[in-house]
Structures are given as structure tokens and as C-alpha cells.
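Appendix B, example 12.
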Amino acid sequence: MSAITVEHITKTYAQGNAKKTKVVALNDISFSVEQGQLFGLIGPDGAGKTSLFRILTTVLLADKGNAAVDGLDVVKDYRKIRNIVGYMPGRFSLYQDLTVEENLNFFATIFHTTVKKNYDLIHDIYIQIEPFKKRKAGALSGGMKQKLALCCALIHKPKVLFLDEPTTGVDPVSRRDFWDIIARLKAQDITILVSTPYMDEANRCEKIALIQTGRILSVSTPAKIIEEFGHSLFAVRSNDMYGLLQSLKQNSSIEQSYPFGAYYHVIPKKGFSDTDLVQYLETNGHTEIEVKAIKPDIEDSFIDLMKQNA
């Protein structure tokens, strides 16, 4: 049995003064998460990730479709689901005027348990914030707030853990530390669904779903999605980076070109080689040209899938 199943879920919101404008947040999406799996929902802000998390944690009703967590229907069995899941929203939602210790005890009490009973599950995380246990939550750093929120989500020993953009807004070191914590939790056979807008975090997951404007673009392992890229890919630089992008977009032999760090990534049409590209750029007045064939990553795959599904 899958730990999470999502079948043809659709969710729309009414916007505008008269609420007549319909915005589709989730558009007929389906996927499943196996028990004990670390599954990533990868996509930019506004892709629909939070709407889906709110549906799966029984906070929001879908317009169409069905979803289940640990075999329980998110509508019919919402009370049971709330007792077996941990939910860490993207926005810090703990009590800012309570201390670290008070927040943790409060959430343990809500679930009719104690910090002591399940301390083994949060020990590795809590010891990092324990020196600040008397500090109010609102006075913690971003990374410490995330760790406290995770402790509160775990204190009742959930079967399924939902982490909605847990590393957004924290520094790179805290991001890395947080993913190390997630990996240790996964080793304890907790099913984890995590969302993130950071493409580089996709490789931390066993399986991912790429989502854009409420639609699932692909569901597979990160390696499989990259393997299915199916194009040549060049990293390109020249003396005039602004003019370079214009030149690339004007060439009909180039499928796509987009900024990527210090380079532009270029997807050529079949038969258009790196030598052809250099000659074209030289003809257009570019100097200090660098063109190298590279392997795609998840972000390249995501951009390509967006174009295919446009």
C-alpha cells in the first residue's frame, strides 16, 4: 500500500473584487509515494505545492479528485490523518511569544504525548537548539526556527511527514544541515514528502515530481528524468554576454537558450554542432567565445519539460 496517493486532484481559487476570476492552482495531478520513501515535489513559487500540502494534511478541500494518506481518505478520515501526520508549513507558524521549550511541550500535549516519550526521534535535532530553550521562538534565527518547527512536527512520532519548503529563506549551511536531518529521519522509516523551489535539492530525494503552474511535468527518479533529457547541451560565454543572448535567440538552429550562472545554456537543434555555434557567433562579432558540451541537470530538464508542456 502506498503511503500517499494523489488521484486527479484539481483545485481552483476565485480572485478579483467580484471573485469571478478563476485561478487553477492544481490541474488534474496524480502521483503516489511509497512507504518509507523520501519524495520531493519540485517547482517554483506559485506552482501549487502548498495547495497540495494543505489538501493532503486535511486543511483544504480539493474541487475534484481523491487523495489518501496511509490508506485513509483525506475527506472522510481527516481526524485520523491529523493524528498520524506531521506538517511543517512553509511559513513559520509556531507561537513566537512562547519559548522553544514551551512550544515543544504545547505540541506534545496537543497529541496526548510528552517530549520525554518521543525524545529519541528529535534528539539529534533538539540538541542543536537546546542551548536556546528558554529563548522565545520569535527571537531565533531562521535555521533555528526551522529546527524547532521540525521538532514540533515530529513530537508525536508521525507515520508521514510533510515538509513544505523547509529550507526557503535559510542560509546555505542551514540548508545542508536540514537535508542531513531529513536523511536521518528517512532512515527511521518515516515517509517524507518535501517540497522545494531549489532544483539542486532534487538529487537529495529518491523520487521527485516536477510541478509547474499546477501541472505535473514528470514523476521519476532524478537520474531518470535527467537521462530522458534527449538533447545536446552547450554552456556558452563570450565578451558580450547581453549581446550573446540576443544572438542566440535569433538563431533558428537553436531550440532554447537561457542564463545559467556565468554561462548561457544552449539546446541546439539536431545537426547544429559546437563548431557551427562558434562560427555563427564569430560572424556576429563576438570574441572570447567559449562553447563546451555539458551534461544536463535537473534544472535543464525542468526548463525543457516546461517548453514541451507549454
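The radius of gyration is 23 Å. The chain has a mean pLDDT of 93.
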